[in-house]
Structure formats: C-alpha cells, structure tokens
Specification:
Elements (H helix, E strand, L loop, with lengths): L1 E2 L5 E2 L6 H18 L13 H12 L18 H14 L1 H20 L2 H11 L8 E4 L7 H4 L11 E5 L2 E9 L9 E7 L9 E7 L5 E3 L15 E10 L3 E2 L5 H37 L1 E2 L2 E2 L4 H28 L7 H25 L1 H5 L5 H9 L8 H10 L2
Parallel strand pairs: 3-6
Antiparallel strand pairs: 1-2, 4-5, 5-9, 6-7, 7-10, 8-9, 11-12
Helix pairs in contact: 1-3, 3-4, 3-7, 3-8, 4-7, 7-8, 7-9, 7-11, 8-9, 9-11, 9-12
The chain binds flavin-adenine dinucleotide.
The site of flavin-adenine dinucleotide has 25 residues, from helix 4, strand 3, helix 6 and helix 12.
Length: about 400
Amino acid sequence: MMEGKKGVVMLDFTLSEEQLAIQRLVREFADKEIRPVASQFERDEEGQLAEEIFRKAARIGMLGLPVPRDYGGSEAFNVECSLALEELAVGCGGIATAIGASWFGQTPIMMAATQEQRQRWFPTFASTEETNLCCMAMTEPQGGSDIENPYMESRTIRTRVRIEGERLIVNGHKLWPSNSDNSYLYTVVATTDPNLGDIGSCIVVVPRNAPGLSFGKPYRKMGMDADRNGDIFFDNVEVPLDHLLGKVRDGARILQRALIYDRTGAGAISVGMARGAYEIALNYAKERVVTARPMIQNPITSAMFGDMATAIDAARLLVLRSAWFNAQRGQANIGWATMAKVYASDVAMKVTTDCVQLMGSYGYSKEVGVEKYIRDAKIIQIYIGANKLTRQVNGETL
Ligand SMILES: Cc1cc2nc3c(=O)[nH]c(=O)nc-3n(C[C@H](O)[C@H](O)[C@H](O)COP(=O)(O)OP(=O)(O)OC[C@H]3O[C@@H](n4cnc5c(N)ncnc54)[C@H](O)[C@@H]3O)c2cc1C
C-alpha cells in the first residue's frame, strides 16, 4: 500500500521491472529445463535428473535468490520469491518444493545468524559453481503437525541437543524433510529437554559432513518425485557451539516466524500447479470438438474455466499480499500466510481435479501431464501445517 495524491491510500498491483525480470527468467527456466522432463522424475530414483536441474538453477543464481547481495545472492524479497516459486511449480511441483524448502532452511539462518555465521554460510548458498541445497529438518516419527503447532510449545520434539563445553551434541531422528539426503546444510529443530517446552527449544545448523549424521533411502511417494524425502539420523552428531542459532529458548520463536515465509511459499507453489493444469486444459478445451463445437463453447465448460481463473487469481492475490507484508520490516503475519497456504492448496486440488475431468481420458494419461499436478498438489494440504490444524489455529486468533 502507498500514499497517493491528497493522502489517499492506494493499492498498487504493478510488478516492478526487477520483479518482472525474475518472473521472466524463472518462467524461461521452467519452460526450457523443467517442463520437458517433468514426467520423468517419477522414474528418476537416483535423483540424477533433478540434481542436474538444481545444478542449472544454481548456475543462474536461483538457489541463492533470497541471499543478501553482500554475500553474492540476489537479495530477492518475498514477492520475488513467490513469483519464482509459482513459475517453478508450473514446470514441476517437486522441483519448486525442493528449491522452496531450501530457501525455507535458509530462512532461520537469515533471521537469527550472527555476522560471523552469515559470513560462513551465506556465500555457499549463493554459489553458482556448487549446488548447495539446504534442508529444514522439523518432522519426526512421533509428530509432524505437533512440532509446527504453537500450542504444543515444543513439547513433542524428541531431537535432543546437549551442550558440552564448546560443543553441541545432537541425537534424534527426523523424517520427511525435503532435500533430506542431498543437502549441504541441515537446519535442525531440536530441544535441550522437551519437558521445558519452548524454553528448551533451539535450532542447530548441521553440515552434511558432520560425523554421526546419516540418511535413509528416499521414500517412494504419490507425487513430488523430484523432491527427496527420507530419514535423517543424528547419532551423537557433534558441531561447534556457534552452530546454534540465537540462544537455547529461541528455537520456537524462530521456527514460528520462518513458517510465515514458508507457508506463503507453499501458497505460491499451489498457485503454480493450479495454473499449470489450467493452461493445459484450456488449450485442450479450445481445440477439442464435442457435440460439433469446441468444448470451451459449452456454457458449463466455459463457466468452469471462469471459476478456475477466478480461484487461481484469488489465491495468487492472497499469496502476494502475504509476501508483500513479509517483505516490510516487522509486518510479517502468520494469519495471512496461513490463509494464503490453505486457500491456495485447496484451490490447487480442486482446479487440478477439474482439469483432469474436463480432459477426459487424456487428462488421466501420464503422457499429457495433468494428472501429475493432482498428485503433486495433494501434499500441500498436508505439509507445512496440515490445513485442518492451521485453519483451527487461524480461527482461534480471529
Ligand atoms: C513432499 C514432502 C515435503 C516435505 N517437506 C518437509 C520439510 O521440508 N521439512 C520437514 O520437516 N517436513 C517436511 N515434510 C513433512 C510434513 O511437513 C509433515 O508430514 C506434516 O507436517 C504432517 O505431519 P505428519 O505426517 O506427522 O502428520 P500428523 O501430524 O500426524 O497429521 C496427520 C493429519 O492429522 C490432522 N491433524 C493434525 N493435527 C491436527 C489438529 N491439531 N487439529 C485437527 N487435525 C489435525 C491433519 O489432518 C493431518 O493431515 C514433507 C513431506 C512431504 C511429503
């Protein structure tokens, strides 16, 4: 929002030249590098195809998009990151999730790192030579939603940190994080003692080569195949004391703030997947002749497209509102981020399902690629705060 003439408050929906340039760059990247291979991630069990995409993304500076310029990044704020995630997700939800989750892992470091910690980690995220993904390790075997649920006050976290002199010793088991076995750094949500609640909560940064860190084989899933999700085991993992972000007791606060950015990103990914399915189905409906005329001329069909376009736009506006406020100092708002994530993920499920329906058996075919959007979209109603839980928490704060 901005001050207009005579003090009238105006809304400005125009994207800046820089925002348009990022959107264009990522759209071209998705069209050229991701879309042509999107259907192959399902069979890419070793993840080589995805690795190649991440390498190319690093080369054009995408992995370090939010990293401050002083450290070699593009210093993109939340609106630019949301625009980028939408474009990536039109190409493939799994690639968008992996890159978005990498930014999510970087977020607590951006929020709480000391100058020395920033100097140590930021340039590696921004590297265009190496592929340095980051992993945000929250979920554990006994609970995913509960760890993100502020009402649980960090009491369900079982990954323990012991402070021994100048060392931190980490023990525990995380599962499901994006980029689980292919990250360079792990941002780990932990506790010194779950009985202390939020007072014991902490976030520890663990490098991939830390002794005692090991990984299980990535899980096979319904969708999001380009993202690698599996077990991460911490067996007396030792890191220096200055791998703690902030202090013990800061963990819950940092996590809850980071979730604002991540939920906004999940909303943007949902918008991208809905748009991807919609664009394919719309082209199809213009060509496909049913009852002697193009399908789109059927009033029921055209109304469905009208509704889908409205829902996608409404979801995008919620995402961009949240992103815009996230980029203003002190204005980030969990309620708006949650509205954006919940609404956009529900829209993505509805739109992708309707698109398959509209395209008949072609929609159901793996060759066309619309059914993939449904399979990828489903998890966004579950991850980064299951929609039922986040609806409840949002409702209670109204
Ligand atoms: C592709 C993918 C990417 C992921 N990325 C990450 C990542 O980067 N980092 C990470 O740590 N984890 C990640 N996850 C894990 C994901 O965030 C968790 O699975 C999610 O938080 C849900 O936790 P859960 O599976 O333990 O389900 P549970 O917490 O057991 O929830 C199951 C269901 O119970 C319901 N429910 C839970 N709590 C409530 C409540 N209070 N009120 C009403 N209903 C409720 C919801 O409907 C929910 O869907 C990822 C998972 C996938 C599949």
